[in-house]
From TrEMBL:
PANTHER family: FAD-BINDING PROTEIN, FLAVIN-DEPENDENT TRYPTOPHAN HALOGENASE. This is Tryptophan halogenase family protein. Pfam families: Trp_halogenase. It comes from the Bacteria. SUPFAM superfamilies: FAD/NAD(P)-binding domain (SSF51905). InterPro entries: FAD/NAD-bd_sf, Flavin-dep_Halogenase_NPB, Flavin_halogenase, Trp_halogen. It comes from Sphingomonas agrestis. Coiled coil: none annotated.
C-alpha cells in the first residue's frame, strides 16, 4: 500500500483519447477512490477523424466490458478485415494487407517459407489464397467466429470502422456512468508548481481553476500541458513526408465493404472508410508537393457518392513528443505525437498508452523512473510503427517527383535490416515492441515489390508432391470457409444495425 496515492486525475481534452482514458481508468481504478475529471471545450471541438482501427481494439472493448454488437450499432460501425492498397507500388497495381494470418504453420518453418518454395517449384497461386481475411474481404463476407467455428478461423481477425464522434459519445456514456465528472471549459493557462515544475493546476477562460495529482494531456495536436513543460518534439517528416489531410464524408452508394481502401495519389494518398450511414474519405498529402486546392480537387473527383459538406483541412507534423510522460503529465493521443493514419495506428497507441500507464501507475510523487520506463516503451512502439509505415512510401516504383523522392530517402537502420534479411531469404526479423507481425510485413513487402531471392532451407524437407497436397488442402478449406460466411451487410443487418439496438451503452 503506497502512503501517498494519486487521489485525483484531470483529463484535459475530450476527443477519442480523453474519453478512452476516462472510460478505462474509471473502470480499472474503481477501487482506488480516485476522482476523475475531464475538461473539454465544445467550442474547440475534436479532430473528428480517426474512424479505422486494428484488431487489438477488441481487447480494449473487453476490458471495458463492451458488448461488440451494441458498440458497432451505436457507432454506425462496420467490420474491417484489412486494408486494400491501390497504386502504392505503381499505378494500376493493388494488394491487400489482411488482418489474421496466412495459412497454418506446418513442418519446421513458417507457412510463407513453404509458399516461397512452392513458388520456386512453379506454383503460381498468390499468397492471398491462403488468407481467410483476404478471401472473405473480396467477397464482401463477414462473420464473428464462435467456439464451434472450423479451426481455420483461428487465422481470422477483424477490427472496426466507426464514426469518431459517436465513438467518443459512446465512451463518454460509459465513463460518466462510472462517476467521471465532465467540465465544459476552455483551458486558458497551465500553472506549474515552483520547485519541482509539476503542473499544479489549470485555469479556465472563465477563471475557474482545476488542480489534480496527475494530469492526462489529451488536448490533441495542441498538446497544451506537454507544451507548458517544454519537452520538445522529434520531427519525422524526412521519413513520413505528408503533413496535411483534407477530410470529407460522402453518401453511401452500396453495401459497405469490410475493409479500408488506401489509394496512392500524386503526392500522398486517399482513404475510403465505409460506415453504415456514410463513407468517410480523406486525402493525406505533402504540402510541399501540391497545393491545398489541387489536393481538394483530387479528393472531390474521387468520391464514390455525393459529398456531405466541404473538405476540412488538418495540419500535422509527423513525429513524437520527446517525453510522452514528464513529471505529473502523461500525453495521450495526438498530444503525444502523430505518425499519420496510413495503418490506423493512432487509436491503438492511445490504448497502449493507457495500459502502460496502468502498468507503471505512480503515486503523487511520480517517481521519474516510472516515466522513463513508460517513455522507453512508448518510443520503441512508435519506432516500430514508423518503420512499417516508411516501408509503404520507400518501396515504390511510381514516377511522380514526390514518390521518386520517397524512393530515394535513407530509411532507418532498423527497417533497412528487416528489408535486407527478407530480400535474402524471406525471413522476417521480429522485435519485442513490433505491433505488426509476420502477415502484415509479408503483405506489404511483397505488395510493394520486395521479393525474397531464396527461402528457408528447412522448407525443403517436404517432398514436392506432399507440399503441393498440403497447400492445396489448406487453400480449399479457406475458400470454403469464406464462401460459407454471410455477406457483411447481412451480418450487420442481423446483429448490429444502427438504430435497431440500444443507442448508447449500459455501464457493466
Ligand atoms: C487525417 C487524420 C486521419 C486519422 N485517421 C485515423 C484512423 O483511421 N485511425 C486511427 O486510429 N487514428 C486516426 N487518426 C488519429 C485519431 O484521429 C486520433 O488519434 C484520435 O481522434 C484522438 O484524438 P485526440 O483525442 O488526441 O485529439 P482531439 O480529437 O483533437 O481532441 C482534443 C480535445 O481537447 C480539447 N481541447 C483542446 N484544446 C483545449 C482547450 N484549450 N481547452 C479545453 N479543451 C481543449 C478539444 O476540445 C478536444 O475535446 C487520424 C488523424 C488524422 C489527423
Amino acid at each position: 500500500m503506497t502512503a501517498d496515492p494519486v487521489r485525483s486525475i484531470l483529463i484535459a481534452g475530450g476527443g477519442t483519447a480523453g474519453w478512452m482514458a476516462a472510460a478505462a481508468l474509471s473502470k480499472l481504478l474503481a477501487q482506488h477512490h480516485c476522482r476523475i475529471t475531464l475538461v473539454e471545450s465544445d467550442e474547440i471541438g475534436t479532430v473528428g477523424v480517426g474512424e479505422a482501427t486494428i484488431p487489438p481494439i477488441q481487447l480494449f472493448n473487453k476490458l471495458l466490458g463492451v458488448d461488440e454488437r451494441e458498440f458497432v450499432a451505436a457507432t454506425q460501425g462496420t467490420f474491417k478485415l484489412g486494408i486494400e492498397f491501390v497504386g502504392w507500388r505503381r499505378e494500376g497495381q493493388r494488394y491487400f494487407h489482411p488482418f489474421g494470418r496466412y495459412g497454418d504453420d506446418f513442418g519446421p518453418t513458417a507457412f510463407h517459407q513453404h509458399w516461397l518454395r512452392a513458388r520456386a517449384l512453379g506454383n503460381t497461386t498468390p499468397l492471398d489464397a491462403w488468407s481467410l481475411n483476404h478471401q472473405a474481404a473480396y467477397r464482401d463476407r463477414f462473420e464473428i467466429p464462435t467456439p464451434q467455428s472450423p479451426r481455420v478461423f483461428s487465422t481470422f481477425s477483424w477490427a472496426y470502422h466507426f464514426d469518431a464522434s459517436l465513438y467518443a459519445r459512446y465512451l463518454r456514456c460509459l465513463a460518466e456512468a462510472r462517476g467521471v465528472e465532465r467540465i465544459e471549459g476552455w483551458i486558458a493557462d497551465v500553472v506549474l508548481r515552483p520547485g519541482d515544475g509539476f503542473v499544479d493546476h489549470i485555469i479556465l477562460a472563465d477563471g475557474r481553476t482545476l488542480a489534480a495529482d496527475l494530469f492526462l494531456d489529451c488536448t490533441g495536436f495542441r498538446g497544451l500541458l506537454t507544451e507548458a513543460l517544454g519537452t520538445g518534439y522529434d520531427d519525422w517528416t524526412r521519413w513520413l513526408p505528408c503533413d496535411r489531410a483534407l477530410a470529407v464524408p460522402c453518401a453511401r452508394t452500396g453495401d459497405p465493404e469490410p475493409f479500408t481502401r488506401s489509394t496512392a495519389r500524386t503526392a500522398g494518398w486517399q482513404w475510403r472508410i465505409p460506415l453504415q450511414h456514410r463513407t468517410g474519405n480523406g486525402h493525406v498529402y505533402c504540402s510541399g508537393a501540391i497545393s491545398a486546392d489541387e489536393a481538394a480537387a483530387t479528393l472531390l473527383a474521387n468520391l464514390a457518392g455525393a459529398r456531405e459538406g466541404d473538405p476540412r483541412l488538418l495540419r500535422f507534423t509527423t513525429g513524437r513528443r520527446r517525453k510522452a510522460w514528464h513529471r505529473n503529465v502523461v500525453a495521450l493521443g495526438l498530444a503525444s505525437g502523430f505518425l499519420e493514419p496510413l495503418e490506423s495506428t493512432s487509436i491503438h497507441l492511445i490504448q497502449t498508452g493507457i495500459s502502460k500507464l496502468l502498468s507503471w501507475f505512480p503515486d503523487r510523487h511520480c517517481d521519474p523512473r516510472l516515466a522513463d520506463e513508460y517513455n522507453r516503451q512508448a518510443d520503441a512502439e512508435m519506432e516500430a510503427i514508423r518503420d512499417f509505415l516508411v516501408l509503404h512510401y520507400w518501396a515504390n516504383e511510381r514516377d511522380e517527383p514526390f514518390w521518386r523522392q520517397c524512393a530515394a530517402m535513407t530509411i532507418p537502420d532498423s527497417l533497412a535490416a528487416k528489408v535486407a534479411m527478407f530480400r535474402a531469404n524471406g525471413r522476417l526479423i521480429e522485435r519485442p515492441h513490433d505491433l505488426f507481425h509476420e502477415a502484415s510485413w509479408l503483405a506489404v513487402l511483397l505488395g510493394q515489390g520486395v521479393d525474397p531471392a531464396a527461402h528457408d532451407p528447412l522448407a525443403d524437407t517436404l517432398a514436392p508432391q506432399e507440399l503441393a497436397a498440403v497447400l492445396a488442402g489448406m487453400c480449399q478449406v479457406i475458400d470454403q470457409a469464406a464462401a460459407a460466411m454471410p455477406s457483411h451487410q447481412a451480418f450487420i443487418d442481423r446483429h448490429c444495425r444502427a438504430g435497431a439496438r440500444t443507442a448508447m451503452p449500459l455501464a457493466r
